[in-house]
Amino acid sequence: MRKKHAEVWERCLKVIKDNIPFQSYKTWFEPIEPVNLEDDVLTIQVPSQFFYEWLEEHYIGLLKKTIKKELGSSGRLEYSVIMDSAYSDARPYSVNYPTTDKKATKNNPVSMPIDLSKGNARDILNPFIIPGLKKIKVESQLVETYSFENFIEGDCNRLARSAGWAIAENPGKTAFNPLLIYSAVGLGKTHLAHAIGLQVKNNFPDKTVLYVKTDQFINQYIDSVRNNNQNDFIHFYQMIDVLIMDDIQFVAGKEKTQDVFFHIFNHLHQNNRQIILTSDKPPVELKGMEPRLLSRFKWGLAADLQVPDLETRIAILQNKLYKDGIEMPYEVIEYLAYSISTNIREMEGALISILAQSTLNKKAITLELAKQMIDKFVKNSTREISIDYIQKVVCDYFSLPLEAINSKTRKREIVQARQLAMFFSKKHTKNSLATIGLHCGNKDHATVLHACRTVNNLVETDKRFRVYVEEIDKKLKL
Ligand code: ADP
Ligand code: MG
Description:
Elements: H1 4-19, H2 22-28, E1 33-38, E2 41-46, H3 49-71, E3 76-81, E4 93-98, H4 158-169, E5 179-182, H5 189-203, E6 209-213, H6 214-226, H7 230-238, E7 242-246, H8 255-270, E8 274-279, H9 291-297, E9 301-304, H10 310-324, H11 330-339, H12 344-360, H13 367-380, H14 387-397, H15 412-428, H16 433-439, H17 445-461, H18 463-477
Parallel strand pairs: 2-3, 5-8, 5-9, 6-7, 7-8
Antiparallel strand pairs: 1-2, 3-4
Helix pairs in contact: 1-3, 4-5, 6-7, 10-11, 11-13, 12-13, 14-15, 15-17, 16-17, 17-18
Bound molecules: adenosine-5'-diphosphate (ADP) and magnesium ion.
The site of magnesium ion (MG) has 3 residues, from α5.
């Protein structure tokens, strides 16, 4: 004899089937098991918390109407949720709402603490993976040259790099989930994100890794809405083991995309899959983001990439030249690294221009050629002159070693060079007095202020000194 709950649910399904697309019905209603009917409360079992949330968000109206029709106005629906993976010992987990309410109350759905020490994810029934779909090979879209091997380590990237390395050893199982890498443009976010993906592929060839630019993701989503196959879109993303989303700031203000990404994120995270995001801002500064999404970005680790110091910039250039089998005088490399300090991509662009020029004109790469090229390059990119560069020009001008600026010595000519470096840093950069002081011999802001006054006084009273200042200024602007 058929149980009453099964009969009731079957009648509900008939109504539901007539009201939604067949694919949606198959995806969201076929996996549901009716389990009980008591006092006009029908309990249905759903395969995961996400599934429950999805039903509530998308089909609550239809469900309410249907239940009311079958069980009368006292009818209620109760969910029994099979808990996802390692989040709770208590299962099944019941959530219920009265169908007569105006608005369903979500009974505090799974905001359970995440215990990372429990890494033993149980393989649960996953309703989102259409049988057979899992076998499709996902092209990772990773760029081979953006490897860890080619990612030079420095103070500027140590935290992000080592977190990335740890993730590649153990994707989804470290505390760095999600990993959010942020920095200004051209400082290596995309490179590092690829490096992690490539390394996961090395360590775990069977894992499905996907790199996607956020604007691609947005367009795919829009297409899926247009073609009415959003479920396929979601299924696809939910089967990824390591999802890398580059430039996540582009979802700002895109509510629908954020919504769908939220669900994908939850599913992946709950199943111990790894999520890696990059952004041009720290999470707190991301505007136009849904708070619930933003709060999830903060679950793992947010690590920034800083502007690399001079040694790291030189090492990056040397590595690049070495890989390409090209030789270049050290002074040219050094000059390049000095001149372009805030954006590695620009620095590489200048290197390529120099190489191209020297090949085209069949000229040897000399410092002279490099200077000409960089001048052009720099003018085009309205670069800001850096403190490093100013120090270099000042020291060159007086034939002093660069270390002199940072030394403790009180020799008159060195004190003067240091003061000039401070003066020009104030004039040509946007750095604060404190920052300038820090980089010019570890002095405080008052010393910088004093230096600026001294230089101004001397310019007015000392003719020879004025010539120095004018000449250095010209060199800086070359
Ligand atoms: P972002 O995504 O932050 O704008 P990219 O990842 O595109 O920056 O990096 C710009 C360029 O700088 C790339 O060619 C990249 O290979 C290079 N680059 C950045 N950081 C490093 C590094 N630490 N070592 C070597 N190359 C780097
Ligand atoms: Mg990038």
